[in-house]
Amino acid sequence: MEDQLIIQERQSSGITILDISGRIDAATSSLIEEELGKKIDSGVSTLILNMKDLQYISSSGLRVILAALKRVKTKGGIIALADLQPGPGEVFKMTGFDRLFPISASVEQALEKLNP
Amino acid sequence: MAAYQIDLEDTITAVPQLAQFLSAIAEKENLSFEVENAMQLAAEEAVVNIITHGYKDTPGMIAVHCLVADGLVVLTICDEAPYFNPLTIPPADIDTGIDERRIGGLGVHLIRSLMDEVRYQQTDKGNCLIMQKAI
Question: Is A90 in contact with B33 (Cβ distance < 8 A)?
Answer without folding.
Answer: no
